[in-house]
Design a protein that fits this description.
The complex is a heterodimer of chains A (about 1150) and B (about 400).
Chain A lengths: L8 E9 L2 E6 L9 H9 L4 E7 L4 E6 L6 H12 L2 E3 L11 H11 E5 L5 E6 L6 H12 L4 E7 L4 E6 L6 H11 L3 H17 L14 H7 L10 H11 L12 H9 L2 H15 L3 H33 L5 E6 L2 E6 L8 E4 L8 E13 L1 H4 L5 E3 L16 E2 L4 E13 L5 H11 L6 H30 L4 H15 L3 H19 L2 E3 L2 H9 L2 E5 H5 L5 E7 L2 E5 L10 E3 L2 E3 L5 H12 L4 E6 L2 E5 L2 H12 L4 H7 L2 E5 L7 E8 L2 E8 L1 H7 E5 L4 E3 L2 H16 L3 E10 L5 H5 L2 E10 L6 H10 L3 E5 L4 H11 L6 E6 L8 H8 L4 E3 L3 H13 L4 E5 L5 H6 L2 E5 L5 H6 L2 E3 L5 H40 L8 H20 L22 H29 L3 H24 L16 H17 L1 H6 L7 H25 L58
Parallel strand pairs in A: 1-5, 18-32, 18-35, 28-31, 32-34, 33-34, 35-36, 36-37
Antiparallel strand pairs in A: 1-2, 2-4, 3-4, 6-7, 7-9, 8-9, 10-11, 10-12, 12-16, 13-14, 13-15, 13-16, 17-37, 19-20, 19-31, 20-21, 21-22, 23-24, 25-26, 26-27, 27-30, 28-29, 30-31
Chain B lengths: L3 E9 L4 H19 L4 E9 L2 E9 L6 H12 L12 E9 L4 H5 L10 E8 L8 H16 L8 E14 L2 E14 L3 H17 L6 E9 L15 E2 L4 H4 L20 H18 L5 E8 L8 E5 L8 H11 L4 H7 L5 H4 L5 H4 L20 H8 L1
Parallel strand pairs in B: 3-4, 7-8
Antiparallel strand pairs in B: 1-6, 2-3, 2-9, 5-10, 6-7, 10-11
Helix pairs in contact in B: 1-2, 4-5, 8-12
The chains are: A alpha+beta (about 1150), B alpha+beta (about 400).
């Protein structure tokens, strides 16, 4: 691709260090689309290590090997590569616009187009037209202006429609403010777009300025704030006007009108409306009214269900406002976090949520938990020192970010980014970019609707043609055509399909699973891969002390992470921690040498103040029966040697009954060198080489099991102790190992998913080691073999390679947030249906892109919940299994409903078409057809929609994602069975004609026969492909008897209640006629049952070791040992409801052996 | 009329993609045996671009941080962000871990039969004090010295990737002179710096005082085609077990078809190759021959080798048949016995977790720097007694 750039000149801007040079590239400024081209071109130069082009500045930063290039040679080379000339710096480019000129331009750029209604205005924004890319950002920026209620921007018209508070704004003043806010539309666009693009590509990650790379003083200067006094109120006010409120961009909810229209605008409805129009034209006003009524009811039900789901999520999204400690005008104050502006000086204390992105200006052991943003579960220490410019987000130790939480220490920081420009805000934008695809069933139903509409129109046309040729009057021909149209369209289908979903989501909501979009319930059923975020989803995102290693051996500590209950077990046997000297003194050290405090108990969980690490050790002490408060009161702390740079342990000195005690806790390698003795179960011994090795080995062991290990030791001190006394002579009590525990229900849930043929993939920001340990505990792999991809940078892999890898990999470790999206996309590109569970803000884009995004509701981030299709209110991964089962049931029931409706409707077409083919008038009037479709079908259809779970639902592999909701065999069965039903009715019609001649009596007999056989057909629709009477299915449908009873009563009314009978155009029937009709109804059913019984093939052999999950893979290696639970897949009759499972050819990379 | 011939052997730097994979594999063997001295482990690696693919098949009590081992190995090999980022490169691991099954009890028994059918070779000759052929010995030493220069200020810009070829001219089967030394290394810097560093820091000290050394006619070729700008798997893909000649005798003797690296001591490809070298070296050290190649073949299910065949190329005191019989009688070649005799299970732990990884570069035999059990002339007297 040629680089087409205006001024083809390169200017050296700066050469900050050997090996780095910043060049101004002509034509790059404000042209984000050129960044990549420039970067690629320059990266081709040998010995260039890094190239970063920025359309914001028009500059490119080149990092190169200073041994290979001098700066000027490199610039020459760069110029050659770009086919540019080099300009020396003194020929400076055109003067920048003077401020006033710029203002004037800006003013011209935004003008009020329309403001006739107070509180509403249409504002034209120059440069917005045909810039689809900036549309959303403009709306967000304007929407964020204080006092603006709503803003929508259109790239089509170039206008922004604003609703605002008329008491606070006039249209003109608002326009001026907009002009300021939108001052640099291109900058806005490039900011958003390059950022999103880069994040999606995984290249240069993070937006915004390199605040982390600036010394704190520079940041303070730049933001013009006095760090001691804070901003003055005037500055706050003016900055709020420019930057808006510190608030996240909110997703826009679709309007009611749109929701309703979505339900109505489709092909079947159009055909029905056409039918209604024809009816009106031919005088059938009652018919027309009935048809329109049907449409209205359908739309109403659909919209209501969709709406209630949206509402429920809105309440979930509402969260309490967070407060920020801010210093302004020299005084400290707590304000709403929304009030913060860049330059505000904030104070951070443990437990505080970070209210905005801020640069740390001073810190004391500040620990921040950033898992929501980076996926890293361990708290990160922050400080004020400058961080290198290209540090990834997780390494920006000089910055704190909104959406994270302070867990220890304290700091003051200066706010640098607020609202949408914070890291988390950028993720909100990123998430908005990733669109969720329509679910397969939505697509299929749409296709079926369209197909039926087209087919019915064609058949109508043909019959009308044949009728005219046969000399029927036009009016009569039209009537038949409308009859057929009405017969063909399963009017009940949209309502029933929606109901299936609504019932399912209702049931799930009762169990705490919230389905946000109806499509999601169905998509859950086709899931072939569940991608689970580790931290917080599979694990508890807490620290828990799990093992205490003493001279006696490894003591397991059981019980939930934050609960006081639990026991101590040595070699699988519970021990009394008070009777074992080593265990007891370990717990003493843990309780005394700690700043963590237990503040209370809520819902059986302890509330902690202090670091998670210390807290978990204190909890271990409580589990062991100690009361830390009593212990601390009895042993007041008189001295403290804190951890520091170069010291990875902490010492506290306490006054006890028998003199002074020193307690030591810290990194095992350091602590071990300070110890000379070891606690035993009943005494003390010297720490000899053998014991030293034993502890060191076990330390390594615990570390390899992804435990965080701390050594605990103690000694008594003389009253006048020296520094030397404090660093030696300790007695080692034990090593305590901390983990982020696996959720108790997770292993069983993963097993259940495996049984259902669903692969589970763990995606985590953590190291492979941690992830592997967790995966083993979870049983993530069914073959004892774990495939782990630990990617520093997934973007180093090309798409093809990644697609190949995702078939096999169980764990994606150290995955950057934006790469989660790449993984999900790669899985989808393999034709799989991916569910993604997550709770952090960093999961949001992937949640959105996945076929089913599942958010953890309780501790999940607001953003994750807002974007997910499914929200699990209890944070329990086990709910996932239930949700999948429910999803599969949805599909099975929609298929039952489809089977029923399509075969009854098809039988009506056969009947009408058959009669016309024989030159007979239609045996059914349009009204009778409508009656059949709406009344006969609806109640049984509803009952089918409520069919309960089949026990085997979760014993089958997932269906082929490509399989249609009505697969070929099912369609053929529907056509054959409907032909049989129609045959029965036509036979009865023939008998009727032979008895009474052509007329209402014969018609009524055919009508009665059709009614009967359609009702009977419910049983076969229910059974799917199995015989209805002889096939075994244990489940009972409690709604079926009632529904059938109601239908029978209504049919009876249609046949025997004179006014209704007359309205439908029927005639009274003699008893014998009823008998004939019933026989005509029963015979087809018997034929169907026989054909199913005979044609019943042995249940499809389930893939023997259903080891290979759905369409994907599995290497060919024999599973050694590790017998999976898959062997227990149902093998009998059971099989499935109807779905033949075709599998993709499995691709087995098989490893490099 | 004296007979002249030239013989050429090659070696590679420790960061050469294939060797890097060997090193990763052996570092994993070290790590597993350090955690559990009775662990079973087979590790293989492949590397291409910024992606390392590792498979491990292990039975052990405990855990090994596979990715951590891989990343540390990259770092230790001398890679940095420029060529293969130890921190950020992508590692795909396929690991099966099982808690040790029944096999473990039998593993210790002397009678434990061979688990695979394999043929290995050991070789020794009197060309150098290490009883190694001169060409490979010189090539290994040059590689070793270059390895030490990587990352130092003495030769900045030298990447840990490259290959060395050494041609020795033999007169009447005796090494007479160094005919050519050809180096191809990745070096970012001036060609003349490289050349002078090679001469003054590598070749000079190496041949100082040696009888066979480069002379005026010797061709010393350094980066004849210039240097590739990229080192490591970004230049060439690598795979465990593809540098077997460099691991053993530089082509002067036959070698088995199984790789040595990445295997625990229960694997005959590895332990029998060491035993064969041990026997051959002792034969030469005992003065029974000036050159000896020993072939050992094993059949599945039998502990004793089915073939023990020593040959001396007409340079021994005894007929091959007699020598073979002596060797079979004097050495116990049963797999479990070999592993125990050489302490192959416990050496990694004894040496602080660093044993096999050191073998992965610089040759698995003929390493005076490592005090290897199979290099000890501890059977010399027994052999001499048996021969007399």
């Amino acid at each position: 691709m040629a680089v087409e750039i205006g001024t083809r000149e390169l200017t050296i801007r700066a050469a900050p260090a050997p090996g780095r040079v910043r060049l101004s590239v002509g034509g790059l400024l404000r042209r984000p689309e050129r960044e990549a081209t420039v970067e690629t071109a320059l990266a081709r130069i040998p010995n260039v290590e890094q190239v970063r082009a920025s359309s914001l500045t028009g500059n490119v930063l080149i990092v190169f090997d200073p041994g290979a290039w001098t700066t000027s040679d490199l610039v020459e080379a760069a110029a050659r590569e770009l086919r540019y000339t080099v300009r020396t710096a003194d020929e400076s480019p055109a003067e920048p616009l003077s401020p006033t000129e710029a203002d004037a331009r800006r003013q011209r750029a935004v003008r009020v187009v329309w403001d006739k209604v107070p509180g509403r205005a249409r504002i034209a924004v120059a440069g917005l037209r045909s810039r689809k890319d900036v549309e959303a950002s403009v709306a967000r920026v304007v929407g964020a202006i204080d006092g603006v209620v709503e803003a929508s921007a259109s790239a089509l018209t170039g206008n922004v429609l604003v609703r605002f508070d008329p008491a606070r704004w006039t249209a003109d003043r608002l326009a001026a403010t907009c002009a300021d806010a939108l001052a640099d539309l291109d900058r806005l666009a490039s900011h958003v777009r390059t950022d999103v693009k880069q994040r999606l590509n995984g290249t240069a990650a993070v937006p915004g300025q390199d605040w982390h790379h600036q010394p704190a003083e520079t940041v303070i200067d730049e933001l013009q704030v006095d760090p001691d006094a804070g901003l003055d109120l005037a500055a706050v006010a003016s900055r709020r006007a420019t930057h808006g409120l510190n608030r996240m961009p909110e997703p826009v909810e679709p309007s009611l009108l749109k929701t309703v229209l979505d339900q109505v605008v489709n092909a079947p409805t159009a055909l029905l409306l056409a039918g209604a129009a024809v009816s009106v034209a031919t005088g059938g006003v009652f018919d027309a009214a009935l048809i329109v009524g049907v449409i209205v009811v359908n739309a109403g039900v659909g919209a209501t269900t969709e709406r209630s789901g949206q509402r429920a999520i809105a309440t979930l999204r509402r969260t309490t406002a967070i407060r920020a400690r801010v210093r302004r005008d020299g005084a400290e104050d707590a304000v709403d976090a929304e009030e913060l502006v860049p330059g505000d000086v904030i104070q951070l204390l443990p437990g505080d949520p970070v209210p905005a992105d801020a640069r740390v200006i001073s810190a004391h052991r500040l620990q921040v938990e950033e898992s929501a943003l980076t996926g890293e579960s361990r708290p990160v220490e922050k400080w004020e020192q400058v961080v290198s410019a290209d540090a990834p987000l997780g390494d920006r130790r000089s910055m704190v970010f909104r959406g994270t939480t302070v867990v220890g220490g304290r700091a003051s920081a200066v706010v640098v980014e607020t609202g949408a420009t914070t890291q988390i805000g950028a993720l909100h934008l990123l998430a908005a970019e990733a669109e969720a695809p329509p679910t397969p069933m939505e697509r299929d139903l749409d296709t079926i609707g369209k197909g039926l509409a087209i087919g019915a129109t064609a058949v109508c046309g043909a019959i009308l043609g044949v009728g005219i040729l046969r000399g029927f009057p036009l009016r009569y021909g039209l009537e038949i055509a409308v009859s057929l149209g009405v017969a063909a369209i399963p009017e009940g289908l949209p309502t029933l399909a929606t109901s299936v979903l609504a019932f399912a989501s209702g049931r799930m909501r009762k169990k705490g699973t919230l389905i946000r979009t109806l499509g999601a319930a169905e998509a859950l059923g086709s899931v072939t891969v569940v991608c689970a975020d580790k931290t917080g989803t599979l694990t508890e995102n807490r620290m828990a002390a799990r093992e205490l290693f003493t001279a006696s051996g490894p003591v397991a500590i059981t019980g939930p992470a934050l609960s006081p209950s639990g026991s101590f077990e040595l070699h699988g046997k519970a021990i009394d921690p008070n009777l074992d000297r080593a265990v007891r003194s370990s717990l003493w050290v843990g309780a005394l040498c700690s700043d963590a405090e237990v503040e209370g108990l809520r819902d059986g969980e302890m509330i902690l103040d202090g670091s998670a690490t210390e807290g978990s050790i204190v909890i271990a002490a409580i589990k062991g029966g100690l009361d830390p408060d009593t212990l601390r009161a009895a042993h007041p702390r008189i001295d403290l040697r804190d951890r520091s740079d170069g010291r990875r342990h902490m010492i506290t000195v306490h006054r006890g009954e028998h003199g002074l005690l020193a307690m030591l806790k810290g990194a095992p390698d350091e602590v071990l060198t300070m110890c000379s003795r070891v606690d035993l179960a009943n005494g003390v011994t010297a720490l000899d080489d053998e014991l030293q090795t034993k502890f060191a080995d076990h330390n390594a062991q615990m570390a390899n099991r992804a435990m965080r290990v701390l050594a605990l030791a103690h000694r008594s001190l003389p009253a006048e102790y020296t520094e030397d006394d404090l660093v030696s002579g300790y007695t080692l009590s034990g090593l305590i190992g901390l983990v982020d525990p696996v959720r108790p229900a997770a292993p069983a849930a993963i097993k259940a998913l495996h049984r259902a043929g669903i692969r589970t993939v763990m995606i985590t920001g953590d190291q492979a080691l941690t992830a592997t340990a967790v995966a083993r505990e979870l049983g993530l792999s069914r073959r004892g073999q774990l495939n782990v991809l630990e990617a520093g940078d997934l973007s180093a892999l090309d798409g093809e390679a990644l697609r190949g890898l995702v078939r096999d990999v169980n764990i994606f470790a150290r995955v950057a947030p934006e790469m989660k999206l790449a993984v999900v996309r790669a899985i989808q590109a393999n034709g799989e249906v991916a569910a993604m569970t997550g709770d952090g803000v960093n999961d949001a884009p992937a949640l959105r892109a996945a076929d089913v995004g599942v958010a953890m509701g309780q501790r999940g981030s607001e953003l994750a919940r807002g974007l997910a299709d499914v929200v699990l209110s209890t944070d329990d991964f086990a709910q996932m299994v239930d949700a999948v089962e429910e999803g599969r049931l949805v599909r099975a029931n929609v298929q039952r409903v489809l089977h029923y409706l399509l075969s009854t409707n098809a039988s009506e077409i056969w009947v009408v078409a058959g009669a016309v083919a024989f030159g007979l008038p239609s045996p059914l009037t349009p009204l009778q057809l409508l009656w059949l479709n709406l009344v006969t079908d609806l109640a049984p259809g509803l009952a089918l929609a409520l069919e309960p779970r089949d026990p085997e639902l979760m014993g089958q592999p997932p269906r082929d994602p490509k399989e249609k909701i009505v697969p070929g065999p099912m369609l053929r069965r529907i056509l054959a069975e409907s032909a049989a039903i129609a045959g029965g009715a036509l036979g009865v019609y023939a008998i009727g004609i032979s008895r009474y001649g052509i007329g209402p009596a014969a018609q009524s007999m055919a009508f009665a026969s059709l009614l009967g056989s359609q009702l009977l057909h419910v049983g076969w629709a229910r059974a799917g492909e199995r015989p209805a009477l002889t096939g075994s299915h244990g489940r009972k449908n409690p709604y079926l008897p009632g529904a059938m009873g109601l239908s029978v009563a209504l049919q009876g009314a249609a046949l025997f209640f004179p006014p209704l009978r007359a309205a439908l155009g029927g005639a009274p029937l003699a008893l014998a006629d009823v008998g004939i009709a019933l026989a005509g109804a029963a015979l087809p059913s018997i034929a169907i049952e026989l054909s199913r019984f005979l044609g019943r093939h042995e249940p499809r052999a389930l893939p023997a070791p259903a080891d290979s999950p759905a369409p994907a893979v599995a290497s060919e290696r024999t599973p050694r040992g590790a017998q999976s639970d898959d062997a227990r897949l149902p093998s009998g009759e059971a099989a499935s409801d109807s779905l033949p499972v075709s599998r993709h050819a499995s691709v087995a990379p098989g490893g490099a052996r | 009329m004296s007979e002249h011939r030239r013989f050429t052997s090659s070696s590679v730097l420790r960061g050469h993609p294939d060797k890097l994979c060997d090193r990763i594999s052996d570092a994993l063997v070290d790590a597993h045996l350090t955690v559990d001295t009775r662990a079973r482990i087979r590790a293989e690696a492949a590397a291409a671009g910024q992606v390392i693919f590792v498979t491990t098949d292990a039975e052990l009590e405990g855990e090994v941080d596979v990715n951590g081992v891989v990343r540390r190995t990259l770092l230790e090999t001398g890679y940095n962000r420029q060529d293969l980022d130890p921190e950020r490169c992508t590692i795909l691991t396929q690991s099966s871990v099982m808690t040790p099954p029944w096999a473990r009890e039998r593993q210790d028994a002397d009678e434990q039969p061979a688990g695979e059918q394999t043929t290995v070779f050991g070789y020794a000759c009197a060309e150098t004090p290490e009883l190694m052929p001169l060409p490979i010995r010189v090539a290994q030493q040059i590689a070793g010295r270059l390895d030490e220069l990587v990352g130092t200020a003495k030769l900045p810009g030298l990447a840990p990737d490259g290959s060395i070829q050494v041609t020795v001219e033999y007169v009447d089967d005796q090494p007479a002179r160094i005919d050519a030394v050809v180096l191809q290394v990745v070096h970012r810097g001036s060609q003349s710096d490289l050349r002078s560093a090679v001469e003054s820091l590598v070749l000079g000290p190496l041949f100082d005082g040696q009888a066979v050394r480069p002379d005026r006619q010797t061709r010393i070729v350094v980066n004849a085609e210039g240097s590739s700008g990229v080192a490591g798997p970004g230049r060439n893909a690598g795979h465990t077990g593809r540098k077997q000649a460099a691991d053993t005798y530089g082509g002067a003797a036959r070698h088995g078809d199984g790789a040595l690296s990445g295997k625990d001591p229960s694997r005959l490809d590895r332990c029998a190759a060491y035993a064969a070298r041990h026997a051959a070296a002792n034969v030469v050290a005992a003065g029974l021959a000036t050159e000896c190649e020993l072939m050992l073949s094993y059949a599945i299910g039998e502990a004793e080798p089915v073939t023990v065949y020593a040959r001396t190329f007409g340079r021994g005191r005894l007929p091959n048949e007699r020598l073979s019989a002596i060797v079979r009688e004097q050495f116990d070649f049963r797999p479990a016995v070999i592993a125990k005799r050489f302490n192959l299970w416990t050496l990694p732990r004894q040496r602080g977790g660093r044993f096999y990884r050191l073998l992965a570069s610089g040759g698995q035999v003929g390493r005076p720097d490592l005090d290897l059990p199979w290099e000890r002339p501890d059977m010399v007297e027994a052999l001499q007694r048996a021969a007399d």
